[in-house]
């Protein structure tokens, strides 16, 4: 493992396995920076994860890219939540909503770090009681591990001293061609999901699951991202692509993606019930093109705290939260 300076007193950790797969992570926002695959004919590397060159550049361009999103990923309606019979007002950072935990969140701070051998890094931080309105002093950790079988493991865990809600994710973006200024439209996508979650005009879930049958959300067999990009479906028109949760029907190999040249594949396994796929519909054009990357956010359902039938993101005082997601690279 190599450790380098990354700006703003942050560090960059570069892990490499015996197959030549490289994973770069930083304690600034506990984020994934690069995933480099030795897939080129000349023996060169293809970086498939959207990345910035420094902590300063993330701040300037897009601080969510690759970051750990805590305590709650996605949007919370009304910027309010009721927990154990008490209503809490949360920081409103979109009109009438809380997005990705509010303002000045943990994606903007340097987490504590610890290296465990040559293939594992642990990042930890504390969200103080009342942080952006969320109750409880929440101790948060994320463990990144690069395995010999070309798996990037992303494991979250947390504990709070008060009843609270917790629903983390990682905001990594992929382009398996490594060409971030070209559309992902010709990437092949397969999702083990019979249902997806439609959105309203405010980008919040409507509170129902819709069957994928006969829609551009049906990826039960391999299909192109372009299926949705060129569709006239009201949901893809609403967000100019995809920004939707799919209800996963299995944990193992829940999502598969292949680059157009078939040289790089991605298999995603997770113990979380949803995968939110966002296709960079409103791009930071210095980083990537419109539809130039896709996120793969494995998490509980967005706004589950305010919707019936969307599962629970409640975390009781003293109980430990844990989640495991695995990104397997193939070439």
Layout of secondary structure:
Elements: E1 2-7, E2 10-16, E3 22-26, E4 31-37, E5 46-47, H1 55-61, E6 68-69, E7 75-77, E8 80-83, E9 86-89, E10 97-99, E11 112-115, E12 120-127, E13 138-146, E14 151-160, E15 164-165, E16 169-170, E17 173-174, E18 188-191, E19 193-196, E20 210-211, E21 223-224, H2 226-229, H3 234-239, E22 243-248, E23 255-258, E24 265-270, E25 274-278, E26 294-295, E27 297-299, E28 314-315, E29 320-330
Antiparallel strand pairs: 1-2, 2-3, 3-4, 4-5, 6-16, 7-10, 8-9, 11-12, 12-13, 13-14, 14-29, 15-28, 17-26, 18-21, 18-23, 19-20, 19-22, 22-25, 23-24, 24-29, 25-27
Catalytic activity: alpha-D-glucose = beta-D-glucose
GO molecular function, one term: carbohydrate binding
GO biological process, one term: galactose catabolic process via UDP-galactose, Leloir pathway
Give a quick summary of the entry.
Pfam families: Aldose_epim. With 331 residues, the chain is mainly β. It has helices at residues 55-61, 226-229, 234-239, and strands spanning 2-7, 10-16, 22-26, 31-37, 46-47, 68-69, 75-77, 80-83, 86-89, 97-99, 112-115, 120-127, 138-146, 151-160, 164-165, 169-170, 173-174, 188-191, 193-196, 210-211, 223-224, 243-248, 255-258, 265-270, 274-278, 294-295, 297-299, 314-315, 320-330.
Tell me about this structure.
The strands form eight sheets. This protein has a nine-stranded antiparallel β-sheet with strand order 11-12-13-14-29-24-23-18-21. Strands 1-2-3-4-5 form a five-stranded antiparallel β-sheet, with no helix packed on it. A five-stranded antiparallel β-sheet has the order 20-19-22-25-27, with no helix packed on it. The mean pLDDT is 98. It contains three helices and 29 strands. The protein is globular. With 331 residues, it is mainly beta. It has one domain: Beta-galactosidase, Chain A, domain 5 (Distorted Sandwich), CATH 2.70.98.10. The protein has helices spanning 55-61, 226-229, 234-239, and strands at residues 2-7, 10-16, 22-26, 31-37, 46-47, 68-69, 75-77, 80-83, 86-89, 97-99, 112-115, 120-127, 138-146, 151-160, 164-165, 169-170, 173-174, 188-191, 193-196, 210-211, 223-224, 243-248, 255-258, 265-270, 274-278, 294-295, 297-299, 314-315, 320-330.
């Amino acid at each position: 493992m190599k450790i380098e300076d990354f700006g703003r007193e942050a560090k960059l950790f570069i892990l490499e396995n015996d197959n030549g797969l490289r994973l770069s992570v930083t304690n600034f926002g506990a984020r994934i920076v690069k995933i480099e695959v030795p897939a080129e004919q000349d023996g060169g590397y293809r970086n498939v994860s959207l990345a910035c060159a420094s902590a300063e550049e993330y701040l300037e361009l897009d601080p969510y890219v690759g970051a750990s999103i805590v305590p709650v990923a996605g949007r919370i309606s009304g910027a309010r939540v009721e927990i154990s019979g008490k209503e809490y007002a949360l920081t409103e950072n979109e009109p009438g909503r809380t997005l990705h935990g509010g303002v000045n969140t943990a994606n903007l701070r340097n987490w504590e770090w610890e290296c465990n051998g040559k293939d594992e890094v642990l990042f930890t931080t504390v969200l103080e009681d009342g942080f952006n309105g969320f109750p409880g002093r929440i101790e948060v950790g994320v463990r990144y591990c690069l395995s010999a079988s070309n798996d990037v493991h992303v494991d979250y865990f947390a504990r709070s001293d008060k009843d609270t809600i917790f629903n983390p994710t990682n905001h990594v973006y992929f382009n398996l061609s490594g060409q971030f200024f070209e559309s992902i439209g010709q990437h092949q996508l397969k999702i083990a999901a019979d249902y997806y979650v439609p959105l309203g005009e405010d980008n919040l879930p409507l509170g129902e699951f819709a069957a994928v049958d006969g829609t551009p959300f049906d990826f039960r067999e391999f299909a192109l991202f372009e299926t949705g990009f060129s569709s006239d479906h009201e949901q893809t028109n609403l967000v100019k692509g995809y920004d939707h949760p799919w209800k996963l029907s299995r944990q193992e190999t829940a999502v598969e993606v292949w680059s157009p040249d078939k040289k790089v594949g991605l298999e995603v396994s997770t113990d979380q019930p949803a995968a939110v796929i966002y296709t960079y519909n409103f791009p930071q054009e210095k980083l990537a093109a419109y539809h130039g990357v896709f996120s793969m956010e494995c998490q509980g359902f967005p706004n589950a705290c305010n919707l019936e039938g969307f599962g629970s993101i409640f975390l009781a005082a003293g109980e430990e939260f844990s989640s495991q997601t695995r990104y397997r690279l193939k070439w």
